[in-house]
Amino acid sequence: MDAKKIGDLIKKLRKQKGLSQYKLAEALFVDRTAVTKWENGKTIPSVDMLLMISNYFNISIGELVYGSLKNNENDEKIKKYEREKQKKREDIKLIWS
Fold first, then answer.
1. What is the mean pLDDT of each run of 10 residues along the chain (97 residues)?
2. What own/partner pairs with CB < 8 Å and gap ≥ 24 does 10-14 have?
3. For the whole model, what pTM was predicted?
């Protein structure tokens, strides 16, 4: 396991969800400094925490342990969500114009 790769992936997923380190820590019931240490590659989350993190971000524990996503499914989900969000904004603008 590469602590830096795991940390980079956690950081990427956290930012994609628009979460602060504090909010992620809150969701995982840990201190914000734990998230900081993971993201900086200083420590690796415990096995139990790796499972919680993988469940939270809806990725496999293998993807998390290897520090990379097998495919871009999560990226595609995020892009789809952003497109839908933008379309709703445009629809609202049309309604109010």
1. 92 95 97 97 96 94 85 66 82 76
2. 10/35, 10/38, 10/39, 10/53, 10/64, 11/39, 13/57, 13/59, 13/74, 14/39
3. 0.70
